[in-house]
Write a structure and sequence with these properties.
Elements: H1 13-22, E1 26-30, H2 34-47, E2 51-56, H3 57-63, H4 65-82, E3 88-95, H5 98-106, E4 111-114, H6 121-136, E5 141-146, E6 151-153, E7 156-158, H7 166-176, E8 180-183, H8 207-216, E9 222-224, H9 232-240, H10 253-260, E10 264-269, H11 271-287, H12 295-317
Parallel strand pairs: 1-2, 1-10, 2-3, 3-4, 4-5, 5-8, 8-9, 9-10
Antiparallel strand pairs: 6-7
Helix pairs in contact: 2-4, 2-12, 5-6, 7-8, 9-11, 11-12
The structure holds glyceraldehyde-3-phosphate (G3H), 1,3-dihydroxyacetonephosphate and zinc ion (ZN).
């Protein structure tokens, strides 16, 4: 067993409390490789933002569990080396079972999500409660989910979203003991969040549901998944350099800023980072067809990612200067 404190990590409890009081949200950025991690840490150090490093089940498989531990420890040291020791949470994104969550707790994660949102209500409560009982013994914080986002929830494909039913949230939180709750108010995973024709605006988020959840769970940390904005300039760049992404759409940054001022304490962004990397790599390879040193296309990708993260932190989440 490696405890997260040995790696220099923190859990999310204190960060969420401060975010709630301060009207901002903590960035939860997914990573799978070294360049993504470097971009996240350097962006957060330069803006003095706390951060949640998110690892999905797919990322664990891709990056290797042992390497992940050392990468997380390395991230803590890297931040210090860059000049500022930001608080870093290592979080399991969309944990699919008690066993996956247990294995993460035992290998240095400071926070886990158990995603039982696709299960019948009582089964969701049962597995979430089981994870909480185990994780809390080690002071690891737990995120649960109620309501289903459209798009892909890791390996669970949700054709249509089911908004969170506010009448369930108190019972769920009381019976499971979770530390935070992901809700479905109209966001969705991936780069194709809404079926829109060119020029059309996606439907607004259901702030009425969020407000009702806040009324029933005062001062309780809420999480938004599927919060990429799918920036049109980045999509255009991908397409200009040989890509083919059509009819993409994301959540407007104005709405995310509004959400960050509320009880929403954690905002998950993955797809926007994937798009930034793809645009930068395509640009280099298209402009310099003779290039074959990965550092010369992954380096610019890392730079573009860092700029994207800084923009999110400063202009969308409001977490700059809060570390
Ligand atoms: O919500 C899902 C995240 O974007 C992670 O995606 O399972 O492809 O790593 P992944
Ligand atoms: P996006 O696909 O909108 O970036 O959402 C990421 C996410 O929710 C990770 O859990
Ligand atoms: Zn998600």
């Amino acid at each position: 067993m490696i405890h997260y404190k040995e790696l220099g990590l923190v859990n999310s409890r204190e960060l969420f409390k401060k975010a709630m009081e301060g009207g901002y949200a903590i960035p939860a950025f997914n990573f799978n490789n070294l360049e993504q991690l470097q971009a996240i840490i350097s962006a957060c150090v330069e803006t003095k933002s706390p951060v949640i490093l998110q690892v999905s089940k797919g990322a664990r498989k891709y990056a290797n569990q042992t390497l992940l531990q050392y990468l997380a420890k390395g991230a803590v040291e890297y931040a210090k080396e860059l000049g500022y020791a930001i608080p870093i949470v290592l979080h399991l994104d969309h944990g699919d079972s008690f066993e996956t969550c247990k294995s993460c707790v035992e290998t240095g994660f400071s926070s886990v999500m158990i995603d039982g949102s696709h299960l019948p209500y009582e089964e969701n409560i049962k597995v979430t409660r089981q994870v909480v009982e185990f994780a809390h013994q080690f002071d690891v914080t737990v995120e649960g989910e109620l309501g289903v986002l459209a798009g892909i929830e890791d390996e669970v494909s949700a054709e249509h979203s089911h908004y969170t039913r506010p009448e369930e949230v108190e019972d769920f939180v009381n019976r499971t003991g979770v530390d935070s709750l992901a809700i479905s108010i109209g966001t969705s995973h991936g780069a194709y969040k809404f079926k829109v024709k060119p020029g059309e605006t996606p439907p607004p988020l259901r702030f009425d549901i969020l407000e009702e959840v806040e009324r029933r769970l005062p001062w309780f940390p809420i999480v938004l998944h599927g919060a990429s904005s799918v920036p049109q300039d980045i999509v255009d760049e991908i397409n200009r350099y040989g890509g083919k992404l059509e009819n993409t759409a994301g959540v407007s940054e104005e709405q995310l800023r509004r959400a960050a001022r509320s009880a929403v304490c954690k905002i998950n962004i993955d797809s926007d980072g994937r798009l930034a990397v793809t645009a930068a790599v395509r640009k280099v390879l298209s402009e310099k067809p003779g290039e074959f040193d990965p550092r010369n296309y992954l380096g610019p990708a890392r730079e573009k990612l860092k700029e994207l993260y800084k923009h999110k932190i400063i202009n969308v989440l409001g977490s700059a200067g809060k570390a």
